[in-house]
Amino acid sequence: MIIKEPFDRLVIIAYRLPFKFVKSKEGFKAIQNAGGLVSAILALSESFKKSKNTLVNNKILWSGVGDHLPEPGKIENEHFDIVPVRIPARLNDQFYGGFSNDLIWPLFHYFSSYSVIKNNYFEAYKEANILFCQEIIKHIKPGDFIWIHDYQLLLLPEMIRQKIPDATIGFFLHIPFPSYEIFRQLPRPWRDAIIQGMLGADLIGFHTHDYTQHFIKSVKRTTGFECRQNVIFTSNKVVKADAFPIGIDFEKFHQASYDKAVLKEKDKIRKSLGEQKLVFSVDRLDYTKGLLSRLLGFETFLEKNPGWRSKVVFNMVVVPSRDSIEKYKEMKKEIESTVGRINGRFSTLSWRPLVYQYKTLSFNELVALYDISDVGLITPLRDGMNLVAKEFVASQRENLDALILSEMAGAAAELNEALIINPADNNEIAEAILTALEMSPLEKKTRIERMQNRIASYNVFTWAHDFFNQTNEIKSQQNMMRVKYINPGITGTIAMAYQKAGRRILFLDYDGTLVAFAKYPELAVIDKTTLKIVKKLASDPRNHIVIISGRGKEFLEKQFGTVPVTLVAEHGYFIKKAGEAWESTISADAQWKEAVMPILKEYVDRCNGTFIEEKTGSLAWHYRNADMDFAQLRLNELRDDLAEIIRHKTDFEILEGHKVLEVKSGKYDKGQAAAVLIAKEYYDFILAAGDDKTDEFLFQAIPDFGYTIRVGLSPSFARYNVPDTDSLLTLLQTLMR
Ligand code: GDG
């Protein structure tokens, strides 16, 4: 993979440091922590060291919780510069044990009934994220790529962004992002804060396309931000969310299988197995891993296939994890009693069906077991990815196995040659075990090789580099947009042109430009400050101010009353000069309304929260208050229905604006109305500001020397963008200074 623009340094921020530090006489001794992320970044660090063309010129900086560690810079480590964050034990209990592991972990794994909501949890979570932020910003340098990991630090991206607005920040979630129906179980302020927090990053990565879509839906529902494909248009920048299925260091596992020490291990296991077949699994102790139902699945297999008894052994290794927590303790007891019960039920003098081990395996033992076993049985009830499945596949060398994999693991999306099962169904597990044991060597080989090819090519390095490259891309997209963003320099140029001009015309759209959107159109009334700005602009005899809107004439008249401005209503259907009456040069009859109104009414019934606005020359179907995804679906259907009528009647057209579909008599738009006004007089300063698709006609009608400004981040014909209505009002005030 080609790295386009190297960053100077990689900064990893995760709850855990990659090592446990044990105080010794010589100082601090580092012992490597187990876990997916550590393995991935260690592999990456090794590759940085080996490769001449490294993407990262400096040592990786890793920041994580380390309460009793010495100051940063004082810990010697060959791979990383370590920055420990001090989180007092009491706070950590609430932040890590509480909010992270009692609430987010179960909820995001769809174990809602296990999740505990306590008010002080969130406060502690916020406080701990602040402690991370305070420590890390002391060490950030320009050119750093900050990569924040996982569910303990969901608020951190935005916190760092507030302190270092230009920082390059990536965020990766290692666990599933659940569907909105689950996510919304969080109290509203917490879910808003989580989404805002994550959106502080430039790029947000998930293991699968499904998790990405769930996240985007939650963004839409909590913020209302526009999302196109995987790009989210927040109020001040674009953010990308995408799937980056984490890989493994394929070669490390693949080669290790033939290491002397591993070959020795395999010999040992082979001898103790004799002719028996081996089913193998290894997981951390966790309710998400489906340990109990796996045991029950194996029991069903033995029950239904007496012929296989005494010919097969299931070695279930459970790695100690979180076992001081009550839920985990209980689960461990239940596993142990189930193992006892099944062994009691089926064992003979010479055969025990289950070998249960509660321990951590050495790397050599792990690889040996991966390869020597005949069936890998990986059946989590939910799992972000599951690296064990990939490591298992990579380690197959001497004895090619069959892999049984849960459809609930993120890995199932890539390893579709595995026997994919529903982990809650004992019968399906039992059947899959039988199929796996009876699978022909040729079929095993074909399946394993296909999976190996895939995970060898999208390995942990490809994963990380893909993430870095995508970050670069979104950064340059942001920069391109920033070029169009009005900055003090551009504001100065426009202000100078304004001051010098003898006669000016300013076109100002209403909704979304002068006034922010409200729940219903009639609630979006102009506030005093904005009205004052418009009045001041209009009071300059050199100015011709035009309020140009899709709104009806009565509404506009009510807002601007006696202010000496020109009002353009219904996209140019009506025009009213200051002190004069409304005029219309459009001679469109609105016969089509009879055919269209019933259709729109049908869509109001079929899509809750939508409503119709009737104007002289148009009918508008507003969907701003509906469920956005559902409304999009209905919108597509509505377009089709209307297209059908358009084939027979050609006297109307469809115009789409911000969360509105408008059907109007054809042949007029804001651009034409503006062109007529511009042609009537000589102007040496023209400015047009608008916020949605209908304003694009206006921008295109403005001569090249004019200044066109789109409010919001969307791509546009306008020369410049401002982030929101407030920024536009500030600009207008600056002109008049
Ligand atoms: C989280 C997400 C996601 C396990 N036992 C031993 C051992 N391990 C190593 C494995 C593997 C890692 O630990 C476990 O990774 P998983 O992906 O299976 O699971 P989680 O720890 O829950 O990780 C998960 C992952 O983050 C990465 O994004 O895939 O969905 O929950 O590397 O090899 N290593 C050794 N002995 C053991 O006994 N040496």
Detail the topology: elements first, then pairings.
Layout: E1 9-13, E2 19-24, E3 27-32, H1 36-50, E4 60-65, E5 80-85, H2 89-108, H3 119-136, E6 144-149, H4 156-163, E7 168-172, H5 180-183, H6 188-198, E8 203-206, H7 209-223, E9 226-228, E10 231-233, E11 238-243, H8 250-256, H9 260-273, E12 277-284, H10 291-304, E13 312-319, H11 326-346, E14 354-358, H12 363-372, E15 375-378, H13 387-394, E16 402-406, E17 419-421, H14 426-438, H15 441-457, H16 460-484, H17 488-500, E18 504-508, H18 528-539, E19 543-548, H19 553-560, E20 566-569, E21 574-576, E22 582-583, H20 593-606, E23 611-614, E24 618-622, H21 628-646, E25 652-657, E26 660-665, H22 670-680, E27 685-690, H23 695-701, E28 707-711, E29 720-722, H24 725-735
Parallel strand pairs: 1-4, 1-6, 4-5, 6-7, 7-8, 8-11, 12-13, 12-15, 13-14, 15-16, 16-17, 18-19, 18-27, 19-20, 27-28, 28-29
Antiparallel strand pairs: 2-3, 9-10, 10-11, 20-21, 21-22, 23-24, 24-26, 25-26
Helix pairs in contact: 2-3, 6-7, 8-13, 9-12, 10-11, 10-14, 20-21, 22-23
The chain binds GDP-alpha-D-glucose.
